[in-house]
């Protein structure tokens, strides 16, 4: 019987009226109790420790991708293979880097973050040992796939942990060059094995289960650390609270491996991620070709090439930092302007698309022009400082646009950071894989000048995404919000039912 029916029947039966009011008071008390409960029971010190370990572990995936690059020529010589085949090892890594978070993230959303974290890092460590002992190219390729399968999910799972425990309101290539030059390329993977092993130890000891459907705000008990297991054995945990959370959470959430693909059916998300993917694709043409081209044009060794990667890397850091500050400023200014223009509606929502992409036009010019300038500078054997300055500017401009698109998709789906990160990872890594396998044959076929001209023109074509999103994005978002409301907050329902 509904609440309205109970109120109507109270005119006939006064006793039932008292019962209804009692139920309403009880419901109000429950709501008040939920409001009083903290989002997370962890202290600030514990949160810092968990997130520090997750951040350190999250560095493994990009470190593994970049530490490998300065040693490509040495690997080619030792395994008696070709540049194209060595670049394929980059391609397969990126393909599995794209697919892996989709698989592991879905399992983590059902069975918990902690067991998936440990499982993936153990796979990663085993793959690193296999790579260090690889006797031939085939073994290198197989273990490189396993390495990506184990390492690339840590960022998405880390994003999930961040969302679980924190309310939304509240230096690779150089190292690779040194190791390859002073020791041997196989030592790169022994070093990575040590890093991965330390991550396994720290995660197993100090990072608890955080999946809210299993442990709520941290008061529940699932996939325990050794310290949690001992505390329960000693009777130090609140068993009544654990039982309440287990009952409240109900059965385990079913796994849906299609979840990251669902976001790609939304036009604004698809356009944003394709645009971001081509930026990543452009950046990876520089990273993949640098080792071979700098050896040919400037006769550099592995250590010197590793140092050259600092230019693009430092540019990326500076671009991300500066653009992040500018995005905050632009967001506040647009908010103030919108409120001034709508004094009768101070709570009016601003356009996320305009706030995040409105200041991107200067960077668009650079991401279009720099690949072309770089390609012809290399074609005419420009001095090394010229090539390095151009790579630095590529890092600045590309990262400044990437942070715009990343901020936008997070704004569009608050609380869905892990899933949308997996979708972003899927598109950009697949496009990056295409770039890594195509760049060297392209350079050999049409020359480095024309090859990077093609790269610049491809990025130019995708620039249309920015004005399209600013103009049509709010309409698409409003339609999605309406579908989302009709489906009771189930995005999967809007995909399978409302798009007929």
From TrEMBL:
The chain crosses the membrane at residues 47-68, 88-108, 115-133, 187-207, 358-377, 389-413, 449-470. Keywords: Membrane, Transmembrane, Transmembrane helix, Transport. Residues 22-35 have a biased composition (Basic and acidic residues). Its main location: membrane. It comes from the Eukaryota. One of its GO terms (molecular function) is transmembrane transporter activity. Residues 1-19 have a biased composition (Polar residues). It is found in: Membrane. InterPro entries: MFS, MFS_dom, MFS_trans_sf. This is Major facilitator superfamily (MFS) profile domain-containing protein. It comes from Mucor lusitanicus CBS 277.49.
